[in-house]
Design brief:
Layout: H1 2-6, H2 18-31, E1 35-41, E2 45-51, E3 66-69, H3 77-83, E4 87-90, H4 96-109, H5 113-135, E5 143-151, E6 154-157, H6 162-170, E7 172-174, E8 182-184, H7 187-193, E9 197-201, H8 210-217, H9 225-228, E10 232-235, H10 237-241, H11 246-258
Helix pairs in contact: 4-5, 5-11, 6-11
């Protein structure tokens, strides 16, 4: 079956590309505790080497494989995985309650309800601690906040996104809350809305951070209140943009930007 997949004999249509076939084959082989090696030479073509454990005697039809996907995969990768026999569950929470619900769902699907319940109880307790800090009488009013996703073009997390919900719970006021989803935004709009806090996700898995460099060096942002008050903060992009239990850690970090007395780690600002 894997050979047929790599040769393009299983998948047809718009999503039948060499990349998609290799990607799927790699997932299948790794799911069987094997390895897929790919080599190519000019004029010689591509050689695929598949190594499977000697103990593997089954067929793909005997594999009860579950793949957890996100919305970004729904139009391409998910249909391909389903075509070759995988059970695919798409998780795309847009709120913190959605994250909790998805964890419970995965627990139910995998027969780990008790483990999921223990985890969600712990996460809910942490969420409530952050929410309580935001409504504490000593807390400051919700601060106008820019959570910038990218700089070329300028992208922000608007309404209907998990980061937007996290900002609200942590005590911020998203300046892009009137925009839907992950949206582009003009620099003039950012300046006119004058963010008091700017949160910059670090680049996921990349050695440098051009987004951070843009925010702290762009001359047009220097007149914002966030820059003047030195309230520009880094946050781990893997925590805030890759959904799951890790999002609660991002929530706690956001809370520390607004309420420094909270017992969470404050990330370096532009002046640190």
């Amino acid at each position: 079956m894997i050979n047929q997949l790599l040769k393009g004999q299983l998948i047809h249509g718009a999503y039948d590309t060499r990349w998609s076939r290799i990607y799927l084959a790699k997932i299948i082989v790794q799911g069987l505790d094997g390895a897929l090696d790919i080599t190519s030479s000019p004029g010689q073509g591509i050689t695929y080497t598949i190594v499977l454990p000697q103990t593997w005697q089954g067929s793909m039809q005997e594999v009860n494989a579950l793949v957890l996907a996100t919305d970004i995969h729904s139009k391409s990768v998910t249909p391909l995985l389903q075509k070759v026999g995988f059970n695919v569950v798409t998780l795309y929470p847009k709120t913190l309650n959605g994250v909790i619900g998805d964890i419970d769902l995965v627990g139910k699907i995998t027969g780990k309800e008790n483990t999921a319940s223990e985890l969600t109880a712990s996460l809910n307790k942490r969420i409530q601690a952050v929410a309580s800090a935001a409504i504490n009488p000593a807390a400051v009013r919700p601060l106008r906040t820019l959570l910038i996703i990218w700089y070329d073009p300028l992208m922000v997390a608007g309404a209907g996104t998990l980061p937007d919900d996290m900002l609200k719970v942590a005590g911020g006021k998203n300046i892009a809350s009137d925009m839907m989803g992950y949206s582009s935004i003009g620099l003039e709009t950012i300046i006119s809305r004058d963010p008091e806090v700017i949160i910059v996700p670090s680049d996921m898995g990349q050695p440098d951070n051009p987004l951070w460099d843009f925010v702290i060096t762009d001359a047009r942002l220097k007149n914002t209140t966030a820059t003047k008050d030195k309230a520009i903060y880094k946050i781990d992009g893997d925590l805030v943009l890759r959904y799951g239990p890790r999002c609660i850690t991002a929530l706690e970090q956001m809370s520390s930007f607004y309420h420094p007395s909270q017992e969470v780690n404050k990330q370096p600002s532009a002046t640190n």
